[in-house]
Structures are given as C-alpha cells and as structure tokens.
Design a protein that fits this description.
Distance between the termini: 27 Å
Number of domains: 1
Number of strands: 3
Number of helices: 4
Helix content: 40-55%
Order of helices and strands: EHHEEHH
Shape: globular
Strand content: 15-25%
Largest sheet: 3 strands, antiparallel
Length: 86
C-alpha cells in the first residue's frame, strides 16, 4: 500500500513472471518514455530495495494499470501500443 493505494513492485513482478529484474526495469523505462507522449494515466514510483548483499538497488512501485502495461509489454512492443493509445 502506498497512500492508501494498492501497489506492487518491479521486484515482485520479475519474480512472479520469471523475468530478470533488469529486464522488467527496462520495460518500465520504455513505458515511461512512451507514456510521456500520450494521455496514459498510470503510476510508477521510483524506489529502492536492499538486495541479498544488503546493497541498495533501483525498483519501481506501480499501480494496477501500470502493472497491466508492464505485463502486456512482455508480449512485445506491438501489444503495448494499443494500450497507450486508448
């Protein structure tokens, strides 16, 4: 929860979908670049977490709509474009 909104993290998405976290981060960054030029209203919050070596690493928190865009991006860029045009 973040400000009374349900959120998930890029780390959890990577784990649940069997992806490398760095690839999930890249997908999110690509979505953010694309979303800058569209009317998409999703929430990504840059944050950090401590890895197994107790080192701070980047991650994103995301709302349900942002999560949906990330998951769609796993199927390829062509699937993402209609979601951003709505």
């Amino acid at each position: 929860m973040h400000h009374a909104r349900r959120m998930t993290s890029s780390v959890l998405v990577a784990q649940k979908f069997g992806k490398d976290h760095r690839n999930v981060l890249q997908s999110i960054r690509n979505i953010l670049l694309t979303a800058e030029n569209s009317a998409v209203n999703v929430t990504f919050i840059a944050s950090t977490y401590l890895n197994e070596r107790n080192q701070s690493q980047p991650m994103f928190l995301m709302d349900r709509d942002a999560f949906a865009l990330v998951v769609v991006s796993f199927t390829g860029g062509e699937a993402l474009i209609p979601c951003l045009i709505q």
